[in-house]
Amino acid sequence: MRNLIRKAPSWIKKPIKYVYGLIPYEKRMGKIFWDTYNFLQESQWWSKEKLEEYQMRELEKLLKHAYENVPYYRKVFNERGLKPKDIQDFDDLKKIPFLTKEIIQNNLEDLVAQNYSRSKLQYVTTGGSTGIPMGFYQDKSSAESIEWAFILNQWSRVGFKVGDKCVVLRGNVVKSANKGKLWEYDPINKDLILSSYHMIDEALPKYIAKIREFKPDFIQAYPSAVTILARFIKEHDINPFPTVKAILCASENLYSWQRELLKEIMKCRIWSFYGHSERAALAGECEKSAYYHIQPEYGIAELFDKNGNSISNEHELGEIVSTGFNNYICPFIRYRTMDMAIKGKNNCNQCGRQFQLLKKIEGRLQEMILTKTNRYISMTAINMHSDVFDNIKQFQFFQEEKGKVFFNIIRKNSYTEKDTEYIYRELNKKLGNDMDLIIHFVDHIPRTKNGKYRFLIQKLPINLGG
Ligand SMILES: [Zn+2]
């Protein structure tokens, strides 16, 4: 990460970080926002043909722009004797090679469109979860408004209206927390921002009282943070919050054990979406279904298996490769996200949208455990919502050697030797006998610098696609 920031030119002031709640409404909600939002409210009901036509038009525009203005793409096209007009349908896209994080790391300046004034550029860094830190640029004047319009369009599926009151539990640093005030009110966004760094048992009753007094319409949360809250509510048999219509999860994969727990305890809709800082693909749940609906106006998402073959069958697992329509400064064309998902149907029969579905997001490649016989076990396969973990406060897997994984746990006072045996027995069933499991008791589990908890610290390079 240090390298990248050093490489960034001096006219770049400060990289931005994505925490939606931190960008005030007035900066996001101008004409660009409303034009995009209103368009999406209509286009979401278009027929498959009309959506595909729209996508093809956007793709043509993007490719022409990339060829004419972005040195990296011009070179890639020229080397292959390609012209933008050679891409006539979605299948032709395969003629363009994948864009990887390494390519971006090594060719950033060549990936910037030359027809944009430097003053329009905003530098963004990302990459914590994949282990490949990366920086890129986006349009300072429009990127946030467009993104926000897409997010709010998706939230509107569960009743969210502009101006609704939110509790935000998303890794924000609350300045007054060191003095014991664990939240702050943001009058512009009408949000109550709670510190997600101070959610210890002693403080949680205060959090719960504050949320109850605030009467939020929605809770925006990292799944890991709202899970801490839900587990506490369950243990102490506390009533959930009656005004909350949905919990809007973001920024971390929502595991099915978390969804089950949240649904059971919070007694409201648990809603999630897939997105990433590069903003080349976006997919959210709908009114009724918990499958991820790939947003066609946002870009084109393809799925590939580990041999690089495109996936067309339902239930198959593949890596998401995406082409984003909204970034003309640093176009992401056939970008390998390193995120894995399971393919679903080509439309949703619950809401009627003609969007492609993903049944499940398996998460980042770095969220896989590697066994002695080279099997990959996804963290989503390990169900933590079970009484096996009742006497654990927190846990984290840690792998740095193939076939061997540490399970670090913070014990509750009620924890006994019996729990250790039980955990070994149950986890070994999931992990299989080509995996050594070692339980470690710890006092502390570190967070990432964005305040997220990771369930797995994977030190091995995981790269299914080679
Ligand atoms: Zn649907």
Indicate the topology.
Blueprint: H1 2-7, H2 25-28, H3 31-43, H4 48-69, H5 71-79, H6 101-107, E1 121-126, E2 134-139, H7 143-155, E3 166-169, E4 183-186, E5 191-194, H8 204-214, E6 218-221, H9 223-235, E7 246-249, H10 256-266, E8 269-271, E9 273-274, E10 283-284, E11 292-294, E12 299-304, E13 317-324, E14 335-343, E15 357-364, E16 368-370, E17 376-378, E18 392-401, E19 404-411, H11 417-431, E20 436-441, E21 456-458
Helix pairs in contact: 3-7, 4-5, 9-10
This protein binds zinc ion.
Zinc ion binds near residues 348, 350 and 351.
CA(first)-CA(last) distance: 23 Å
With strands numbered from the N-terminus, the spatial order across the biggest sheet is 9-10-11-15-14-13-12
What is the average per-residue confidence, as pLDDT, rounded to a whole number? 88
How much helix, percentage-wise, in residues?
25-40%
Uncertain spans: 1-21
Which secondary-structure class do the elements indicate?
Answer: alpha/beta
Number of strands: 21
How large is the share of residues in beta strands? 15-25%
Overall form: globular
* Small molecules held by this entry: zinc ion
**How many helical elements?**
11
The major sheet is characterized as: 7 strands, antiparallel
C-alpha Rg (nearest Å): 22 Å
